[in-house]
Each structure stands twice: as structure tokens, then as C-alpha cells.
Amino acid sequence: MARRLRLLPWMLLLLVLATAGLAWSSVSLYRAGIYNQKLEAGELHTGSSARELFANAWLLAEQGQVEKALELYVEAAAKGDDGLRKAAYFNSGNLYLTQSVEILENEGYASWDKVGPLMSLCKENYTKALLIDPEWIEAKYNLELALRLSPSFAGVKTPNRYNEDDDEVEEDEKRPDGWPSIPGFPRGMP
Prior knowledge:
Strand content: under 5%
Mean pLDDT: 81
Low-confidence stretches: 158-162
Radius of gyration: 26 Å
Structural class: mainly alpha
Helix content: 55-70%
Shape: elongated
Distance between the termini: 96 Å
Number of strands: 0
């Protein structure tokens, strides 16, 4: 009997903790249900958690409000865990890539000045997603697609990056001439 009396406070504590956990889970489930109803109705949630911001950004992107969606993806990436951050970066990259392709299809290559910065942002977001999860195949594929549309020339001397002190380049550091230095795969003889 004395042993049971000594365990009584611990059992009461366990009961209180279990009840609190059940109440917290119930409230979370209720909020998720309300949020899902709002999403189905096309309404945004007023919450400011990372997951709510991410879901709002996705909904805005589906509605065509890309700029607002990108802002919310940035906020969600700043507040979220690694999984949410990589998804926010990936979705942002997808939005930039979609915008770039649409501009190129509608206006042609004459609009490359508009597309260049969007492609840079696209590649940056895919790279950030791959820094979080280097094995993510979808992000790798989309980054490769973005690089094919707009190759990055990091480390290549262009007129803007030329430095006269770098004239003495060792044999090992020289870039190859011809096909190996052209990004992409050769398409055959003309």
C-alpha cells in the first residue's frame, strides 16, 4: 500500500502529461482541418508559422500571384526546418524557371535581358536546395535544365572579370580549346 502511495504522484503527473498531449494534438488536428477547408475554398490562412506561409505561397502561385508567392517562400524558408527550406527554395526556383520560359516563348530571344536575372535567381534557389539535400534528383534535374538554358561562367574570364595580374596562368589551369570548353553536348556535324 505504501508503495502505491509513492507511485501515485508519478501516475498523476503521467496522466496530466498525457491529457495535455491529447489536448495539444486535438487543437492541431482542428487547426489543420480548418486550414484544409480554407485551402479548398481558395482562401489564405492568417497564421504565420512556416508551414502556413509555405501553403499560402503555394496557393498564391497556383492563383498566378507569383511575386507574393515568392515573398512568402522567402519567409517560410527563413522560419522553417531543413525540409521546408529546401522545398521553399525548390518551389521558388520552379517559379523563376517558369517565368523565364514563358517570357522566352512569348517574346523570343530578344527578351534575354529580362530572362537573365530570373535564370540567375532560379539557379541560386536550386543550388540552395541542393546544399540542404545534395541527393535530391528533382532539384538536380531542374538545375541542369536551368544551366542548359543559361550556362553560368563562374571562373571564366570575361571582359567584366578580366584582371591583368592573372595573365600568368599555369599549364594545368588553362581551359581547353574547342568542344570541351563549350557548355552542353555537341549535336553533330553541320
